[in-house]
Amino acid sequence: MKRKYELTFILKIDSNEQNTNEVIDEVRGWIETDGSGTITKVDRWGRRRLAYEIDKQREGNYIYVEADIDPENIAELERNLRLSTSVIRHLLVRADE
């Protein structure tokens, strides 16, 4: 049974528009593998200042995603986000119903 999740992740600012699109497509692939999830909304919040420096970055490109994901695949999604070199930080939470 799929549940609604909200994913926010921050990309390094040195990536251009094409790299940003590639990372979003990569995350989409992680979510939608084997029909285990579907993305319902992708929102680009744009370039924002970070509260503190992370990996020598003072700003980041914020991306917000709403998706219906099978809870069994959450661990693999978070693992892929942690291993990605373009993603500085991420937050994945279950949306209230």
Question: How do you describe this structure in short?
Answer:
The protein has 97 residues and is an alpha+beta fold. It has 2 helices and 4 strands; from the N terminus they run E-H-E-E-H-E. It has one domain: Alpha-Beta Plaits (2-Layer Sandwich), CATH 3.30.70.60.
Helix content: 25-40%
* Oligomeric nature of the chains: single chain
The CATH class, by name, is: Alpha Beta
- The radius of gyration over CA amounts to 13 Å
Task: Kindly state the number of beta strands.
Answer: 4
Structural class: alpha+beta
Distance between the termini: 14 Å
Strand content is over 45%
Can you tell me the overall shape?
Answer: globular
Low-confidence stretches: none
Main sheet characteristics: 4 strands, antiparallel
Total domain units: 1
Indicate the CATH topology. Alpha-Beta Plaits
> H/E series, N to C?
EHEEHE
CATH-derived architecture = 2-Layer Sandwich
Question: How would you name the CATH homologous superfamily?
Answer: Ribosomal protein S6/Translation elongation factor EF1B
Order of strands side by side in the largest beta sheet?
2-3-1-4
Structure annotation, total helices: 2
The overall pLDDT, averaged over residues, is 90
